[in-house]
Amino acid sequence: TVADSTTSTGASATTAPSSTTPTTGAATPTTESAAWSVRTINSSGGVVVIRYRPQEVDLQAATPASGFGVEIDDPGPSRVRVEFENDDDRVRVEARWENGQLVVEVD
């Protein structure tokens, strides 16, 4: 059952409870309802744009710098891993959740 935490809206106190989940209240958002945040990760090999929310990360874009190629190793949702490469250099960008924190590494 859902605890009744109503405010004065003029509705009758004898109204039957709704079977839908309220959209307001003190409930903790689940992964499905948590809002996405966006982060841009710059590296010498290019730019990676991800969106993320608790326990999920999703590749939005991977744009190589001039002279670099791009390889998408993992587009999500458990992690994003992108590699930029040219004749002289390889740059790996990875984003993943670890111990409840988003971890971003550029190697």
- Report the mean per-residue pLDDT as an integer: 80
User: Which percent range fits the helix content?
Assistant: under 10%
Cα-atom radius of gyration: 22 Å
How do the helices and strands follow one another from N- to C-terminus?
Answer: EEEEEEE
Structural class of the secondary elements?
A: mainly beta
Taken from the alpha-carbon principal axes, the silhouette is: elongated
| Estimated share of beta-strand residues | over 45%
The description of the largest β-sheet is: 4 strands, antiparallel
**Number of helical segments with 4 or more residues:** 0
Major beta sheet, strand line-up: 4-5-6-7
Would you report the number of β strands?
7
Distance between the termini: 50 Å
